[in-house]
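Reminder to self: tokens first, then the designed residues, so the page reads top to bottom the way the pipeline ran.
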């Protein structure tokens, strides 16, 4: 029960890692609030989790809109009395495209959702987290640490999230707020299923075994991560077990990061 009594807000909490985090945090004693753009997805996720006996609330909001996110945080604090933790799991992937062919519209959208959305969620939550001396976990990616073929927009966005994490960790340390980045490797989520549909089934084999053609390292542990494995790492970073940890990048990637 690492998070007993804590109130945790998860952006992008309706699927994949976000949904796994909601389950994990609830089982650890937290009261969880999900936030995502699509109202029907929020409703579906909340119903699913409540049917499992978990204490969850959900709100639809644009995570890139500051006023929208401030409203959500105000609702959380009004209903539960505090906000103890924030996880910024909202994000989108990039279809494989070389840097000379990617449309600026696509580039800007990925930066807006992945980077600006992270900043907005943090800005909206800062006052409440200072009051509770809470904790933030951003969701970056192992791709923040090295280049990946035809993934310029995604890699740059996740590197920016990592840099932002360290900056916010430094600025909020004096308030007792810890800020850390989770860097997942390839994880079995709906985002990967989408990648297989758009880029073909070979992409999954390349992610596990690597590809010399795409300069892609394989996964030393030989498999994709489970969403639950990312959730348990996020739980640790939010909890008092990590009370003297801030500004770090925790790679949960099966060893990919040691290969570059």
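Designed residues (260 positions):
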């Amino acid at each position: 029960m690492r998070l007993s009594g804590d109130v945790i807000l998860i952006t992008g909490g309706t699927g994949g890692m976000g949904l796994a985090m909601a389950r994990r945090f609830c089982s650890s004693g937290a009261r969880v609030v999900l936030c995502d753009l699509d109202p029907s997805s929020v409703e579906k996720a909340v119903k699913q989790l409540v049917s499992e006996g978990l204490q969850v609330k959900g709100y639809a909001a644009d995570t890139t809109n500051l006023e929208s996110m401030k409203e959500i945080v105000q609702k959380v604090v009004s209903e539960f009395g505090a906000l103890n933790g924030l996880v910024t799991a909202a994000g989108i992937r990039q279809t494989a495209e070389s840097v000379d062919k990617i449309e600026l519209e696509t580039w800007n959208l990925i930066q807006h959702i992945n980077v600006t959305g992270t900043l907005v969620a943090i800005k909206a939550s800062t006052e409440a987290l200072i009051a509770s001396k809470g904790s933030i976990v951003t969701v970056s990616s192992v791709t923040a640490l090295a280049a990946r073929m035809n993934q310029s927009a995604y890699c740059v966005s996740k590197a920016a999230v990592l840099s932002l994490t360290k900056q916010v960790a430094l600025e909020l340390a004096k308030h007792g707020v810890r800020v850390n980045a989770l860097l997942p490797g390839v994880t079995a989520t709906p985002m990967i299923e989408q990648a297989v549909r758009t880029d073909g089934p070979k992409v999954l084999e390349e992610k596990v075994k690597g590809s010399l053609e795409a300069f892609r390292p394989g996964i030393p542990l030989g498999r994709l991560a489970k969403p639950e494995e990312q959730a348990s790492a996020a739980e640790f970073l939010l909890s008092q077990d990590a009370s003297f940890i801030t500004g770090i990048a925790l790679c949960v990637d099966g060893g990919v990061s040691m290969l570059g």
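The mean pLDDT is 91.
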